[in-house]
Design a protein that fits this description.
The protein has two domains: 120 residues, D-Maltodextrin-Binding Protein, domain 2 (3-Layer(aba) Sandwich), CATH 3.40.190; 98 residues, Periplasmic binding protein-like II (D-Maltodextrin-Binding Protein, domain 2, 3-Layer(aba) Sandwich), CATH 3.40.190. It has nine helices and 14 strands. The strands form four sheets. Strands 8, 9, 10, 11, 12 and 13 form a six-stranded mixed beta sheet that branches. The longest helix has 31 residues.
């Protein structure tokens, strides 16, 4: 510990010790700052959704957070030197949670939109997906494009952009709107509608879980469009966003990302 020394006639002693004090203070401040920054980079708090299979969800059998986005951020963390702890948060509250610093990162099936980009920053896209369809299990027709469903009755989700797009096309006998995928799947199985539209990875996850009895997922169907999903951080958190994007580039290059996407059926 440094002690204060009164100024001598020459002032040399004071000048020397003042320089020592300033140097020591800077070193301590730098060390503290580096320690805090390291802690911030080592332990990341992520907000994720409870039941958005296969994007991000809580597996009630294992009590673990699973899904394509959790798998990707864990792989990035391994490359970039940070661990991730998950907080289960409703999708509608994720943006406010990261803005208010309750979490550091959004790990969910969230797509960048102009409105969202006004308040948070997004990473590079992790994956792209489009709407897939299910048809009756006995329907062996090959559906490749939307035109192959012309003149039929189809189902889609209430309030979704895809529903509006299907209606505007004007090629269907009817576009029925549903509150849940389960209701759509039931009507496909019962022959009330020819096809039902939902996110392709969602249909594949439900098919794997055995919850689409009497229907089949049409692989190879070309969606009207594909949308990206990405990680979200508080606006201005450029350093952390750079780490995420750097890690994402690394797992793309070494093939890890492709393996994760195939695992969760984000390729068709």
């Amino acid at each position: 510990m440094f002690q204060y020394m009164p100024q001598s006639a020459s002032g040399k002693h004071v000048s020397f010790f003042q320089r020592m004090l300033v140097t020591a203070a800077i070193a301590v401040a730098t060390a503290c700052g580096a320690s805090q920054a390291g802690a911030a980079q080592t332990n990341i708090s992520a907000g994720t959704t409870p039941s958005s299979v296969p994007n991000a969800f809580l597996d009630i059998k294992t009590n673990q957070i699973e899904g394509v986005m959790p798998d990707v951020i864990r792989a990035i963390g391994q490359r970039e030197g940070f661990d991730v702890s998950f907080n289960v948060i409703p999708f509608s509250a994720l943006i406010q949670s990261v803005v208010s610093d309750k979490i550091d990162l959004i790990v969910a099936g969230m797509s960048p939109t102009p409105k969202r980009e006004e308040v948070i920053d997004f990473s590079q896209p992790v994956a792209y997906f489009g709407k897939g369809i299910i048809v009756n299990a006995s329907d062996k027709h090959s559906y490749h494009t939307i035109q192959d469903l012309k003149g039929t009755v189809v189902g889609a989700g209430v309030g979704e952009e895809t529903s509006d797009e299907l209606i505007k096309l004007g090629i269907f006998k009817e576009v029925k709107l549903y509150n849940t995928g389960a209701d759509m799947a039931r009507d496909v199985a019962l022959g009330r509608i020819t096809a039902a539209f939902n996110d392709y990875p969602v249909w594949k996850a439900q098919e794997a879980a055995g919850t689409l009895q009497g229907t089949r997922v049409v692989d190879g169907f070309q969606p009207l469009r594909r949308v990206p999903i990405a990680f979200g951080v508080k606006k201005g958190n450029a350093a952390f966003l750079t780490k995420i994007n750097d890690g994402l580039a690394k797992i793309k290059a070494d093939g890890t990302l492709d393996k994760i996407l195939k695992k969760w059926n984000f390729v068709d």
